[in-house]
Amino acid sequence: MNNPAAQLTIGALAERTGLNVSAIRYYEEVGLIPEAMRRPSGHRVYGAQAQELLTLIRRCRDFGFSVDDTKTLVSLAASADRDCVEARDLAQGHLDAVRARLADLLALERSLSTFVAACTEQCLGGPAPRCTILQDLGRDEPAARSATPTPRRCCG
Question: Under the phi-then-psi rule, with left for phi > 0, alpha for psi from -120 to 50, and beta for the rest, what region is 100?
Fold first, then answer.
């Protein structure tokens, strides 16, 4: 990094990569990017390759990869002797987890929809303590925690 023209301040790097300065500092702290060089004033400066690396890191994080998975992907991107099957397997594992979370969110959506419909049909405008939503949420029964609650009449 002897060429001062190739050096980027942390602010310039943040602007070019779409990251904020604190994220860049964090990625340096956890070892995702090499430690920055320091000017005599103590300010961090980075080589041009840091922009490419941080863009890869930002995209990994945008896709929801953990810091550890991102470290693995960054390592793979820098290792010509490693097989891309590692990247595919890691992405497949992440895809499986996303699909499982999506299924959970869909079940949650169905439950909330049932709660709202029951309230709209049975007790809307009645006293809040007798609302089907609040009563169902307040029960500590397995049925109350199920994906599809059984609506009860509260104000009818």
Answer: alpha
